[in-house]
Amino acid sequence: MKKQKTAKRKSELTRIAEYMVSGGAYFWSGYGAFFVLDKLLGATFFWAKSIATLVGWTVNFLLQRYWAFNNPTLKAHQTEVTGRYIVITLVDFVLDVLLVYGLTKVTIFGLQINPYIGQFVASGFFTVWNYLWYRFWVFPESFDKKRTTRVRQTVPRVVAHRAQAPSAYRKRSGTKAPRRGKQRSRR
């Protein structure tokens, strides 16, 4: 029992370390992209921040899904995992833009905070915030069986419509159903 707790704790510490490395890759790839777009290409704040965030998201998803929170059972739920990741990253995006933009409007001791410092402040918040969401919701150890059972879907029956002939599905009294295939014309 004690060995299991120790192994689980070590496993969780390893996961946290991998999460931090992955988060660092997300941060630095996004930070570098923001610098290139802002300083070298002269993009507006919104576009520079948006594109940099997309670069970071891609790096982050790949590292978090396939390294830090790698779990064989997630393969069967790839669509759900990806959907959850998109939801949380969209929430993160809105919060991040508001937080960094809001910090650029703050003046401390007569100095205005630039967006680069704002990025560092926001990353501290999102380090804790995202770990909790990833660990327990986006990449969980197991999925709730009630919510993941598939509903059997039936294919709706398509009713054939022939504009100038009787339906192929109903036999009308006194008439023959039309024959399929090549019909010969009578002349």
For the structure shown, list the relevant keywords:
187 residues; mainly alpha; two-stranded antiparallel sheet; 5 helices; globular
Q: What is the residue-averaged pLDDT?
A: 81
Computed CA radius of gyration, to the nearest angstrom: 28 Å
Proportion of strand residues: under 5%
Low-confidence stretches: none
Reading side by side through the largest sheet, how are the strands ordered?
Answer: 1-2
Write the layout of secondary structure elements.
Blueprint: H1 2-40, H2 45-68, H3 78-104, E1 107-108, E2 111-112, H4 115-138, H5 145-148
Antiparallel strand pairs: 1-2
Helix pairs in contact: 1-2, 1-4, 2-3, 3-4
Describe the structure.
- The protein is an all-alpha fold.
- The protein has one domain (7-141).
- Helix content is 63%, strand content 2%.
- It contains 5 helices and 2 strands; from the N terminus they run αααββαα.
- The protein has helices at 2-40, 45-68, 78-104, 115-138, 145-148, and strands spanning 107-108, 111-112.
- A two-stranded antiparallel sheet has the order 1-2.
- A hairpin with a 2-residue loop joins β1 (107-108) and β2.
- α1 (2-40) packs antiparallel against α2 (45-68), α1 packs antiparallel against α4 and α3 runs antiparallel to α4.
- The termini are far apart.
Concise summary:
The protein is an all-alpha fold and 187 residues long. The protein is built from five helices and two strands; from the N terminus they run H-H-H-E-E-H-H. The longest helix is centred in the N-terminal third of the chain and has 39 residues, at 2-40.
